[in-house]
Amino acid sequence: MTALSFDAVLFDCDGVLVDSEPITNRILTQMLGELGWHLTLEECLQIFVGKAVRDEIALIESKTGVRIGDAWQQEFRQRRNAALEKELTEISGAPAAVRQLHKLLDGRIAVASGADLHKVKLQLQKTGMADCFENRVFSGQDLPRSKPYPDVYLAAANALGVDASRCAVVEDTATGARAGLAAGAVVFGYSPGGTGHDSAEALREAGVQHVFTSMAELPDMLAQWRPETVAR
Q1: 132: which of 100, 108, 156, 175 is 20 to 30 A away, CA to CA?
Q2: Can you count the helices (H) and strands (E) in the chain?
Q3: Is the bond into 192 cis (omega within 30 degrees of 0)?
Q4: Residue 137 near residue 156, CB atoms below 8 Å
Q5: Chain centroid to CA 4: how far?
Q6: Residue 63: which of 43, 83, 81, 42 has the closest Cα?
Q7: pLDDT value at residue 2
């Protein structure tokens, strides 16, 4: 395979590496219903995909009239984590793509997620990808601002010793794509269709020029990319 034009690849986790969004949002739908806000799973996904629950507390309180404290958030994380431990699977093609890019870039790949660090590490371990990232796993929740701000991508690039403008970012939501673009990276939007991912149209509206539908395509797509590459 041709050498990459990028110095590093930075991956989102949920919806890019692991098929977690339907599981997480099912638990969230159940718990919101217990508070009196009754949503379908599809409605919940439309509202919350790409966003951290902790950043949406004001919305939840406005819809339920219930004050959401630390205890509720802790219960959500516990119930979510238990479901993920039992049910989580990888995104098809993601482990092979990660391992191929890890080899091509001498390990200069990282995860930059808006989810809490415990969840991200749990998911990578569960799906057998943790060894490819080791300590190169970053959470926007550990920074002053999470996605759509660029902080987590800038932190990941800095830790790898590369400029963010020399990084490829792989995202499946408009919120995450805006974060990658704000960091100055080239964003590749994964949009396979179906539950838990933003549409290709939503990604393009966010400014993504390169949209693809299968993780198996990713290594070749990155290898073929050049600065003058136009939108597909």
Answers
A1: 175
A2: 11, 6
A3: no
A4: no
A5: 22
A6: 43
A7: 62
User: Is residue 5 packed enough to be buried (19+ CB in 10 Å), middle (13-18) or exposed (0-12)?
Assistant: middle
- Enumerate the β-bridge partners of residue 170: 11, 188
Which pLDDT value is given to residue 52? 85
Asked whether 191 and 198 are in contact (CB, 8 A), the reply is yes
93: left (phi over 0), alpha (psi -120 to 50) or beta: left
How large a percentage of the chain has pLDDT more than 70?
97
Other beta carbons within 10 angstroms of residue 212's beta carbon come to: 18
CA distance 144 to 133: 23
pLDDT tens-digit map of 31-85: 999 999 999 999 999 899 888 898 899 999 999 999 999 999 999 999 999 999 9
The answer to whether 152 and 179 have CB atoms below 8 angstroms apart is: yes
7-16: pLDDT as tens digits: 999 999 999 9
| Token pair 């638990």 in the structure block, residue | 27
What is the chain's length? 232
3-state secondary structure (DSSP) of residue 138 = strand
